[in-house]
């Protein structure tokens, strides 16, 4: 199938799905104009890419190893020489936090995350500018129990949560549900999201970009996981008015890099 046909189908499904499945959230957001702007930018760029693909002499090559990962304003350390991109996924879910009871001046503490993952490897390889707009778009739609990423029909490719207090876990699968391995990792480095990063539904700042290093019992050859292109997810600065546990919706792009060499022993490092 030509790539232009795939993109055209994506646009058609997105447009028809946007009003009803999943629901667009305009009632609870603080800035509806920002929501409409994010959606407009995404759909306009998607339509442009569809038209461009139609006039190309041959379809673009969907080779994820050739994809170029974006850099934060203060760059994170690069993957070691010889490591290659194995998989790219959009994550959509919540960052979770706790607050001390009766201490309004305390700062919320990170308590893990929960997100569904959607396969964006081909988009990363061919249309990276479109990929960077997907988290902002996806965050404007309500979370759904159905396997749907906002107005995008990207295929489900796994789930992300914490298997321990400070161990980020990724269960990866292909678009057909076939097991693609398990990834256990801990934070190695972090960088603030760009000032232009998309805010959340209630104007929450974007969570930092991260470099996560894998450790045992990871299966396969994944060595690094990068969380980039984040949207929303940050907690308020203090616990004033907050419950003891709460969630903040976020979206991001996760880049999985593989390389030869032994996986490190478990090191229960910092939070995701």
Automatic annotation (TrEMBL):
InterPro entries xrefs: DUF3455
Entry annotated with the keyword Hydrolase: no
Signal is among the record's keywords: yes
Keywords: Signal
Extent of the signal sequence: 1-17
Top-level taxon of the source organism: Eukaryota
Disordered: region residues: 62-82
Descriptive protein name: Malate dehydrogenase
Organism: Hapsidospora chrysogenum (strain ATCC 11550 / CBS 779.69 / DSM 880 / IAM 14645 / JCM 23072 / IMI 49137) (Acremonium chrysogenum)
């Amino acid at each position: 199938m030509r790539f232009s046909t795939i993109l055209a189908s994506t646009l058609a499904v997105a447009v028809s799905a946007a009003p009803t499945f999943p629901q667009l959230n305009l009632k609870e957001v603080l800035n509806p104009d920002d929501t409409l702007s994010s959606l407009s930018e995404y759909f306009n760029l998607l339509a442009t890419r569809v038209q461009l693909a139609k006039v190309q002499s041959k379809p673009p090559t969907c080779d994820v190893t050739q994809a170029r990962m974006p850099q934060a304003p203060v760059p994170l350390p690069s993957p070691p020489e010889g490591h290659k991109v194995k998989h790219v996924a959009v994550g959509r879910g919540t960052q979770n936090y706790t607050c001390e009871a009766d201490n309004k001046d305390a700062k919320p503490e990170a308590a893990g995350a929960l997100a569904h993952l959607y396969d964006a490897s081909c988009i990363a390889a061919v249309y990276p500018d479109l990929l960077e707009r997907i988290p902002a778009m996806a965050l404007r739609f309500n979370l759904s129990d159905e396997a749907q990423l906002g107005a995008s029909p990207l295929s489900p490719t796994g789930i992300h949560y914490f298997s321990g207090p400070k161990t980020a876990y990724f269960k990866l699968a292909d678009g057909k549900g076939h097991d693609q391995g398990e990834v256990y990792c801990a934070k190695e480095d972090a960088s603030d999201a760009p000032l232009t990063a998309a805010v959340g539904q209630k104007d929450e700042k974007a969570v930092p970009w991260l470099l996560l290093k894998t450790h045992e019992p990871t299966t396969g050859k994944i060595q690094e996981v990068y969380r980039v292109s984040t949207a929303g997810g940050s907690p308020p600065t203090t616990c004033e008015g907050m419950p003891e546990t709460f969630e903040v919706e976020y979206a991001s792009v996760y880049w999985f890099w593989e390389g030869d060499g032994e996986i490190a022993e478990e090191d229960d490092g910092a939070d995701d």
